[in-house]
Structure prediction request, 390 residues.
Amino acid sequence: MNDLCLDIGYRSLNHVGEQLCGDHIDIIEQNENSTVIVLADGLGSGVKACILSTLTSKIISTMIAEGLSIEDCVETIAATLPVCAVRGVAYSTFTIMHIMNNETAEIIQYDNPNVILLRNCLNCKYPITEMTIGGKKIYRSVIRLKEDDIFILMSDGCVHAGIGRANYFGWRLEEIAEYMQTFAHVGYTAKTLATILTDECNQYYGGRPGDDTTACVCRVRKRVPMNMLFGPPSNRDDCNRMMALFFGKEGKHIICGGTTSSIAADYLGKKVMASLKFDCSGIPPIAEIEGVDLVTEGVITVNKVVEYAKDYLSKNELYENWSFGSDGASKICQLLFEEATDINFYVGRAINPAHQNPELPITFSIKMAIVEDLAKCLKLMGKRIKVSYF
Prediction:
């Protein structure tokens, strides 16, 4: 077994004037190292397309995850979904990517734009085998994964971007691959790469997408552990044990909270070097402790991280706010969202007397809720999370 893992992110644009997207993505984890991704594009747009694509992706992803063959999946889709009275087609188009043991990717494609593979930051051609199932041409590929491979799945809204406008004949796959090559070496997350692609499509559409547009990016990378300490333990006698466990873990170390950083500094025999520089309005300045990768304030900073995390999982509109920021919240986001794959939280249950002021909106329960929200968001990003309370 290798130490590779997947970073998966996607983003969609709705057809102008539609509340629902006609594209749908389903991701099912069979286990820690095997994943099924299905991108389905329903006929037309709006409610009907949304229903078609949702049913298609749900049925296929569930059947593939349970070990059924692609032949069974396609036959089931044909038998389950209604036939369009105008086009005479029974199901939506789809792309399936089945990652097995984080070693091999099986790609099944039906009438969606071909998956783009960026390897060594260049557009890489891969073998494709044609099959006929139920009278439909299905294309199958099996690819051995390599670190830093980037797979880009998309609906035809991407290649239709700009037809009759900026791109008279649309945005060809080769052009999309060339555009995305520009960002392949930067280390952006899969969600950010999908956002970059759909934002460019939206520009070509003039801000009024003429088709549902979806990009799903799967980035192959090595596992990177990270450790975050938040709050002192409820029992002072547990300080040394908590610090020993925290600093004994492999990976970078983030400490949040004034009291917590003082305890850590004492444990290391170092000093806390405070800063009065405010890099972001409303976010307390960071500090430094020799041997610690990042030291920030506690509740206010981490609450801001949760806000960024929730946006990241939805429209990702605040990406530029934290991606290039140097304040504590931005730096935590950069480490947890972009760099880490496995995150260990060490959370102290001590009650901060300063938080008991009835005029302050911070309580112990709110602090615990912040930790739970952040852990939940990071799990939805595909991170492995472990939370230990003291």
